[in-house]
From TrEMBL:
One GO MF term attached to the UniProt entry: rRNA (adenine-N6,N6-)-dimethyltransferase activity
Protein known as: Methyltransferase domain-containing protein
Pfam families: Methyltransf_32 (PF13679)
SUPFAM superfamilies tied to this protein: S-adenosyl-L-methionine-dependent methyltransferases (SSF53335)
Length: 561
């Protein structure tokens, strides 16, 4: 099922073309839209481009520039060949972002009956879970299950597990033995709380249906609170899983052979069919920066349980040494996804991996080893966690590292995290949200005139900014960075507001390049796997990009023997 998407030669050739293309247009991908006025970005575009772009409607920007699937482009004027080449090449080089089954669909079929509840998940797996996350755990959980079957593994390690939504589905829904590790202890505590709630729901369900209590042989995941050090060895990672702080609830996870792993599970969860759905006719769909759900309620102190032996690498096991397992990471942020790939390559116990990356701007590079927002260890490293010589999140492969111009700036990688599909929808709806970039660029101009040293100040999102007049937006923004109210010339404000369409066009040009940047980052990881002998790997657009923009999953497994 999992076969190579590209040959080694094809991968190398594509990487060369991507880097050559991005190097030509780095002046667009490297610019910040908030500097539209301060850096006079509009006039950095060729005059021939300006003439045809300045009068486009928002609908035309979406149809003619961003929509790669539009086959009926009707131009209001003759576009210069250089602009046509930019658009066509960007679309041709980027990995396709839709699976065959969902091509052209805005909303996944599972939400057609109820837009907030996936029809593929039972209610116990939808509780506390937003539609986006329901879609993700449903798709990725099924893929992980299939990878486990192909590799002969029954154990999974879920890294960056957050509140444990994927972990619960893998464990209670699909019958896998799961160890989840998460750096944020409050999220680990919440995951354990949700586990208890699910178990109680199952107990009540079983009492109603068969008059018995929950089978003690049912599955419970093991939650570990710990920061995965990108610089630590795979041996330290295994030790962390084995001895880290555990929040364990319910019956322990069995450690016997995989065929015994399902004892009592169908009785407990009653989901012999795919995806935990009550519809036995449901079939899995075509397979192809982890954004963790933050709890909105205050968390009470949780007593940490002592380490249980039934972990990924138990002290006593019927299997010699450490049992084999599959690694998974749903939107593992920054370098974490790169770290998991290195553990997959180096650790003999890891048989397969499903990696969904996000937050590319937090990836470390040689040029920027400590990017803004980089999460570090909040506690002293324990013995065995001492860092190895630094390896960067990009590039990972020797091939890409050796290509001239392979460098990707922080801004280019940040741009690759934007949601192209969502922005196209805003354009077609002529949403007032499009005003926000113009507002921020205008405020940047006024700030720089007073404080030239204060560049790109972190004002962050202002709630419902698009509904505010600019004067009120400026007042709130200036207060956030401790600046007094500035005189705002009404005529100048009005003149800037009239350039909103140009701001939208320029941002759309940078957004056109975003999928190409993401393609290079992911291709580099595919080449890294190939260079290290892992030919059984592929990249699949698993999620619907309208619902989950970072929708690619890199799947790989080691061949037998």
């Amino acid at each position: 099922m999992f076969t190579a998407s590209y040959s080694a030669e094809q991968q190398g050739e594509l990487a060369t073309r991507l880097i050559s293309f991005l190097s030509q247009y780095s002046h667009i991908s490297n610019n910040y839209i908030i500097e539209f006025f301060t850096e006079d970005l509009w006039n950095t575009l060729p005059k021939t481009w300006q003439l045809v772009l300045q009068d486009l409607s928002y609908q035309q920007i979406a149809d003619l520039l961003l929509d790669s699937k539009n086959e009926d482009r009707r131009y209001p004027s003759v576009w210069p060949l250089s602009l046509l080449v930019l658009r066509a090449t960007a679309h041709a080089l980027a990995f396709p972002r839709e699976s065959r089954q969902e091509r052209g669909t805005v909303k996944p079929e599972e939400f057609l009956e109820n837009q907030s509840q996936s029809s593929l998940l039972r209610h116990i797996f939808r509780k506390h879970v937003k539609p986006k996350k329901q879609h993700e755990i449903c798709k990725l959980g099924t893929l992980v299950k299939q990878l486990c079957e192909q590799t002969g593994c029954s154990r999974v390690v879920d890294v960056g597990s957050g509140q444990g939504h994927l972990t619960r589905f893998l464990s209670y829904g699909l019958g896998l033995s799961v160890t989840a590790i998460e750096a944020d202890r409050s999220l680990v505590a919440m995951a354990s709380k949700f586990d208890r709630q699910l178990v109680r729901a199952l107990e009540k369900e079983n009492q109603k249906k068969v008059g018995t209590l929950l089978d003690s042989g049912g599955s419970s995941p093991r939650h570990v609170a710990g920061w995965v050090n990108p610089g630590a060895s795979w041996e330290a990672f295994i030790k962390q899983l084995k001895t880290g702080d555990s929040f364990s609830q319910g019956p322990p996870t069995p450690t016997g052979p995989s065929q015994n792993r399902h004892r009592g599970l169908n009785h407990v969860v009653q989901i012999p069919s795919s995806l935990g759905s009550t519809d036995s006719n449901t079939q899995p769909q075509d397979l192809t920066l982890r954004h963790q759900l933050k709890s909105e309620e205050e968390l009470s102190a949780v007593k940490c349980c002592s380490c249980v032996k039934e972990s990924v690498c138990p002290e006593e096991s019927s299997q010699p040494g450490c049992p084999e397992f599959v690694l998974t990471g749903l939107h593992a942020c920054g370098d974490l996804s790169a770290t998991l790939l290195r553990h997959f390559i180096n650790c003999p116990h890891v048989r397969g991996i499903t990696s969904v990356a996000c937050c590319y701007m937090k990836i470390t590079t040689k040029e920027n080893p400590t990017p803004p927002g980089l999460v570090g260890c909040t506690v002293p490293l324990t013995s065995g966690q001492e860092s190895l010589p630094q390896e960067f999140g990009y590039p990972m492969s020797s091939w890409v590292r050796g290509l001239p111009g392979h460098e990707l700036s922080y801004k280019a990688r940040e741009g690759a995290c934007h949601a192209v599909e969502d922005y196209m929808q805003r354009l077609r709806e002529e949403s007032e949200l499009l005003r926000t970039h113009c507002y921020r660029a205008m405020l940047e101009a006024f700030i720089r005139e007073t404080r030239p040293d204060l560049c790109r100040a972190g004002i962050q999102t202002i709630k419902k900014a698009h509904l505010l007049p600019f004067t009120e937006y400026a007042r709130l923004g200036l207060a956030r960075i401790g600046l007094p109210q500035l005189p705002l010339d009404p005529e100048r404000v009005e003149a800037m507001l009239k350039q909103q369409s140009r701001v939208v066009v320029y941002f759309s040009l940078s957004l056109l390049l975003a999928p190409v940047v993401e393609t290079l980052v992911l291709l580099d990881r595919m080449i890294y796997l190939q260079e290290n002998g892992e030919l059984l790997q592929t990249l699949v657009p698993l999620f619907n990009p309208n619902l989950s923009p970072r929708n690619f999953v890199l799947v790989a497994h080691k061949s037998c023997g």
